[in-house]
Amino acid sequence: MTESHKVTATPMDPETSLRRGVANSEEARRWCRERAIEDIECIVPDQAGVARGKLMPTGKFFDDKPMTLPAAIFTQTITGDYPDRDEEEYAESITDGDLIFRPDFSTLAVVPWASDPTAHVIHNAYHRDGRPVEVSPRRVLQQVIQLYNDAGIQPVVAPELEFYLVKPNLDPDYPLEPPVGRSGRTERARQAYSISAVNEFEALFDDIYEFSEAQGLEIDTLAHEAGTAQMEINLRHGDPVELADQVFLFKRTIREAALRHQMYATFMAKPIAAEPGSAMHIHHSVVSLETGDNIFSTPDGGASKEFLYYIAGLQTYIPRAMAMMAPFVNSYRRITPHTSAPINMRWGYDNRTVGLRVPLSDPAARRVENRVPSSDANPYLAIAASLACGYLGLFNKLEPDEPAAGTGYDAPFTLPRSILDAVQLLENTPELVEIFGSPFVSIYRGIKETEYETFMGVISPWEREYLLLSV
């Protein structure tokens, strides 16, 4: 995160602001007319962070009739199935009635990879009586931020997103392989922070930067991570909804750019068994709405008591909210010792073996990095969960333990080991259910249980290897 003592969101470059976002429908009409936009992708992030919605001709988009979609859009699993059990608290799911979707024009941007002039805009969901849909991931995050704002403070976040580049994989029974770079060879050794390894995919990253610039998305840094053909993109710090939108759009952007170069970009948490997993680390700070000051630092530059309360909240509640930060069966394959992934909620200064790292910084930029979320997480839900945990520590004045002096892997494994364990912890934590709402928690549980049952219907190679002739 950029060191700044009085900031509530990343100031957007004037040139960037011309590329993404307008204030209202009238400005959107003019924006589309100036760019000869023919079609608009009306997109909505679902519970998995997948873009759902409709493609509309520009004229139809501006005919003042809101987009409607079935309420089941927020109960769909990653396999396209639906939980068997209807949730009475989410009435539309029983009748599969329509929800109303209205554009957030601040997210309007071109779709740079489209063959015809096309734009996309993220939509918010509403019930037919005008109430925001409480189970929409974007709304879940907005409600958490409102808790902070009601207390006179504003959370600031900076996500770091890891992903792998792999050869096209047409048969899911075969393991993933690294792609061929410009040298004509594939990586065979780990190349953490190697510039030459990044340059192997120079043309791809040129497209990623070009696509990002066209959409007004701001990349802070790009680096090669520890895994073979594993990369990381860091985003500039700012407003949590704005940053969640950017992660949501970056995932689409990176995948599309990779396809142009006959590669896949995957955000699976653990796509390759022998390689490190991929994370979405989230840096947190909190500023006063009145002064803009970072409340984690005292006037004399020391760590404030609020900073320690916040860390304690993350320590206490992240294991109970982990289903929103590690949402799939595969997510828990990443959580293993000695792989740059945490196994517990110890905290420490500049320590990458613990769940909560306090980076070296000036007092004005004091922050804490949550290293638990995986890159497969829905950014809206992962950020909402992390912020909720910190909020509970801040306002319940919880006390953290002592910072870890050595490796966090010497401490016990205290994070949930499976998605079912994580969902059960979430559902049985009243403080989190109150923040997220029981309709969301109930629907989310149903989705995750259904996905798990689908997974259990698949027999793995491990079972055939070790059980077929031995038991």
From TrEMBL:
Cofactors that this protein relies on: Mg(2+)
MF (Gene Ontology): ATP binding; glutamine synthetase activity
Gene3D superfamilies in UniProt: Glutamine synthetase, N-terminal domain, Glutamine synthetase/guanido kinase, catalytic domain
GO biological process: glutamine biosynthetic process; polyamine catabolic process
SMART domains (alphabetical): Gln-synt_C
Superkingdom as given in the UniProt entry: Bacteria
Keyword Magnesium among record annotations: yes
Domain GS catalytic: 137-471
Chain positions covered by the region annotation Disordered: 1-22
Transmembrane segments: none
Classification via SUPFAM superfamilies: Glutamine synthetase, N-terminal domain (SSF54368), Glutamine synthetase/guanido kinase (SSF55931)
Swiss-Prot/TrEMBL keywords: ATP-binding, Ligase, Magnesium, Nucleotide-binding
Family, similarity comment: Belongs to the glutamine synthetase family.
Protein name as it appears in the record: L-glutamine synthetase
Species this chain originates from: Afifella marina DSM 2698
